[in-house]
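Minutes, project check-in
Item: structure for the 236-residue chain
Input as provided by the requester:
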Amino acid sequence: MQILALDTCDAAGSVALLRDKSLLQCERHTVQEDYSSWLLPAVKGLLSAEKVNLGSIEVFAVAAGPGSFTGVRVGLTTVKAWAEIYQRPIAAVSRLQALAEESSGVARYVAAFFDARRKQTFGALYRRDLELRMIDEEVVIAPEQYLEWCVSQIGTNRIDWISPQPECLTNVPGWAARQDRGERVQEFTGALAPSIGQIGLRLAEEGNLTDALRLDANYIRRSDAEILWKGAKHGS
């Protein structure tokens, strides 16, 4: 199965081409160029390197969020167009799950998080079973609240923490207690598109895919435009 995976949720995005579990090509977004102009040429170059065209892609895997509103929209809009043109299914993947999959630790629990700006953190907590199982829902809250919430869920167990921005958590006062337990935040600096493609493959094998009509963004929080529009509509 050939899978094209996209992550445009923040500036450190990427695209990847996989054949089953094997990564064929990966291109990272390392320039200042907007995704609206970078994405299509990057995908074209990646496919050309393997002499593959979009019509031969069997599943489009995309990070549906959380992340930048603009970035998420670019990725989802692009994948929707391809899915409609080539009549292919879509695997909608949480960027937090893809991040958690990159954890190299062995603790029973994995906490994945990254900067949500506005002094908040996007975060989720997973339990390692045969696969990672999410505990409760993804959240966007203050870093100290995220730390407290994770600790309240796991009792005396240890947590493997992973993030592209460890300082989001390691700078809060409560972190010292976790550090005393020997915990650390694994800093992830790689591309998430390969992990998104791997999760997309599992979703395809489980028959848990979607289409262009049903694909929806996972923003977690509403955009400023939506908040202002709804506030104006109700006179607030």
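Outcome recorded: The longest helix spans residues 69-86.
No further action items on this chain.
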